[in-house]
Design a protein that fits this description.
- The N and C termini lie far apart (41 Å).
- By secondary structure, this protein is α/β, with parallel strands linked by helices.
- The longest helix is centred in the first third of the chain and has 21 residues.
- Strand 1, helix 1 and strand 2 form a beta-alpha-beta unit.
- The mean pLDDT is 95.
- It is globular.
- The strands form 3 sheets. Strands 3-2-1-4-5-7-10 form a 7-stranded parallel β-sheet, sandwiched between helices. A 3-stranded mixed β-sheet has the order 8-9-11. Strands 6-12 form a two-stranded antiparallel ribbon.
- The chain contains 11 helices and 12 strands.
- It has one domain: NAD(P)-binding Rossmann-like Domain (Rossmann fold, 3-Layer(aba) Sandwich).
- Helices cover 39% and strands 16% of the residues.
- One of its GO terms (cellular component) is cytoplasm.
Length: 316
């Protein structure tokens, strides 16, 4: 029961290889320090490596570009959509099932903290459609489902929120934790954040790969907090006092509009500012039971993230 993992060198991919063990086959551009079987190639060009992946029964497409900006977003949008479609075709050629790893942001973004999306919720395109990354993931989901149906490929979409925990070697997923550690938190917007532990997501995906039956969507929720509470919790586990001022949504939105016209030094990208005024809430109807998904306490995740960042990045 070999499971092919794309994005194997990434934050989630490395954890997934460890959990899958001997069942894992890693699709990589460059060799990894892992005992897992490795195939050299990219998700965009499966014809170059398909012959080496015979025996694969599940494809987990975890590769993706994440760039929260409108600048130079074309490559990201193209990769996120076209690589997903290419992997559906690869799954058909391998007679395998496919897991498309997406994001909670396709459905779980709201103006208020009291709203949550479940696996039946509609896309939040009215809100997130203005942000290239989330729009690319919505299109990847839509088009992959359509193609999979046409080709007879069994496909499920898995949506986790922001992933935290040790091992984010590229420093992309743990940016908000690093902001506190490095003193680069200018102010605190009125929005929220949803996150969970990368290790728990990896275990749920491995459990899914070994199941006989799938639903068409699984959510892997963790913890949803206001940004104020999140940054204060990071400060608590790190021993750092977070005393940055709250900034009203209208002010943050104004800064985002200004930043779209004139670069603002020391402030996040306008898309990041816009996102920081929203709330991210979602839940699951069946992942806890079917995937044995039991996310650990969020303070433990934050503590482990801080410890790893400090060890791997001395200035943090």
């Amino acid at each position: 029961m070999k499971t092919l993992v794309t994005g194997a060198s990434g934050f989630l991919g490395r954890n997934l290889l460890e959990v899958l063990g001997d069942d894992a086959v890693a699709l990589v551009r460059s060799p990894l320090d892992t005992p897992a079987q490795q195939i050299s190639g990219t998700p965009m060009e499966p014809d170059a490596w398909l012959s080496q992946a015979k025996g694969t029964r599940v494809v987990i497409h975890a590769a993706g570009m994440v760039h929260h900006s409108r600048h130079h977003a074309e490559e990201m949008v193209r990769f996120n959509i076209e690589s997903s479609l290419a992997m559906v075709r690869a799954a058909r050629a391998l007679d395998a099932r496919m897991v498309l790893v997406s994001t909670s942001g396709t459905v779980g973004c709201f103006p208020h903290a009291t709203i949550e999306a479940d696996e039946h919720s509609l896309y939040a395109e009215g809100v997130v459609g203005r942000w290239p990354y989330y729009l690319s993931k919505i299109r990847a989901e839509e088009q992959s489902r359509k193609l999979a149906k046409q080709l007879g490929v069994e496909l499920t979409v898995v949506r986790p929120p922001v992933l935290l925990g040790p091992g984010d070697t590229l420093g992309r997923s743990t940016t908000n934790v690093a902001r506190v550690l490095n003193g680069r938190l200018p102010f605190i917007p009125a929005g929220g954040i949803a996150f969970t532990d990368v290790r728990d997501v990896a275990h749920a995906l491995a459990r899914l790969a070994r199941r006989d039956t799938w639903r068409d969507t699984y959510h892997l929720p963790g913890t949803s907090l206001s940004l104020r509470t999140f940054f204060e919790r990071v400060g608590e586990v790190a021993g750092i006092k977070v005393d940055k001022p709250d900034v009203p949504t209208l002010v943050v939105q104004g800064l985002a509009k200004l930043g779209s016209k004139v670069p603002l030094k020391k402030l996040p990208d306008p898309v990041v500012l816009e996102m920081s005024t929203c709330h991210w809430g979602f839940k699951t109807l069946w992942s806890h039971e079917e995937l044995d998904y039991q996310p650990r306490a969020h303070r433990q995740t934050l503590s482990d993230t801080v410890a790893w960042l400090r060890q791997s990045q001395p200035r943090a």
